[in-house]
Design brief:
By secondary structure, the chain is mainly alpha-helical. The chain is built from nine helices and no strands. Helix 2 packs antiparallel against helix 5. It starts with 8 loop residues before the first helix and ends in an 18-residue tail after the last helix.
Length: 296
């Protein structure tokens, strides 16, 4: 054996530490604790509730830092972007939602963004750990190697999923408040927050689609080929563009925007999960081989 081909000692130690520590499992637990604290703070006006919300925000920040450290460790160990397989996209997606929420919290200081992000991250990280996906750090397929355009395209597309998933959780929070009390004072703010999250998601999704077209032309000699992934990404983009236009024009307000966002999330799931696992196309490497539909 050639000793020069062996991994560096520090890399081996880092990988052992990563596998023993389980940063994403701990982050999921912290996100769950943060969500409980933030929910307690928003559900009551008492002083203890405000303290619980403050603790929830600190725990959310700690979880986000651990989440980021886990992703950075995988990047160092794998020597590649953090979205080279489906498992890694399930780590990147909630991280983008959390990062976006913390940015919005610096602007609005409303706690609803943080609550939605903590719920999103806790659920997604638990799912990533439970669903039958390969979490090992393995070499990527050839199409994903040394391609700057594709790297930026995938990072941007999955980031848009994170922003739109955050909007979906905000839509559920809006619906819960609306059903509990139709004139809840936070509904107007939540309507604005939902609008802002969709705006970011649409910008990222549109940018990701355009970057994908550039990569497709470089790799396949055409900008657009109606591949299943391309088609469903376009459908999802048009849906959320229609929601934004309806909100801006006054055709959709409040509950209408929330319901439209939740409806659009099913299109997003088809684009993200359904196409990767149940349809065959040029993007099959993104999720794996097509699997048979379950029997009714």
């Amino acid at each position: 054996a050639n000793p020069a081909a062996h991994p560096a000692r520090w890399r081996l130690r880092l990988e052992v530490l990563y596998n023993r520590a389980g940063p994403f499992q701990i982050a999921a637990l912290l996100y769950g604790i943060a969500a409980l604290g933030l929910f307690a703070g928003l559900a009551s006006a008492r002083r203890q509730a405000a303290q619980a919300a403050a603790v929830g925000m600190r725990v959310c920040w700690a979880a986000a830092l651990l989440h980021a450290a886990g992703i950075a460790t995988r990047v160092v160990l794998g020597g590649r972007p953090p979205v080279s397989n489906f498992y890694e996209t399930m780590l990147w997606l909630p991280f983008v939602g959390v990062a976006l929420a913390l940015i919005f919290e610096r602007i609005y200081r409303a706690r609803y963004f943080a609550l939605a992000a903590a719920i999103l991250a806790a659920i997604t990280l638990v799912l990533a750990d439970q669903v039958p996906l390969d979490s090992s750090i393995t070499p990527v397929v050839a199409v994903l190697r040394s391609n700057l355009w594709l790297t930026i395209h995938v990072l941007t597309i999955v980031a848009s999923y994170g922003a739109l998933a955050l909007a979906t959780v905000l839509a559920h929070l809006y619906g819960a408040l609306y059903l509990s009390r139709r004139r809840h004072p936070a509904l107007a703010s939540l309507d604005l927050f939902l609008y802002r999250a969709i705006q970011v998601g649409v910008v990222l999704l549109a940018g990701g689609v355009m970057l994908g077209a550039v990569w497709a032309n470089a790799s396949w000699g055409r900008y657009w080929g109606w591949d299943p992934k391309e088609t469903w990404a376009l459908i999802t983009l048009l849906w959320f563009l229609a929601v934004l236009h309806g909100r801006f024009a006054g055709w959709l307000r409040g509950v209408g925007v929330a319901l439209s966002t939740i409806g659009g999330f099913f299109l997003l799931l088809m684009t993200y999960y359904g196409v990767s696992f149940y349809l065959v196309g040029l993007h099959s490497y993104a999720g794996g081989h097509a699997k048979p539909l379950p029997a009714l």
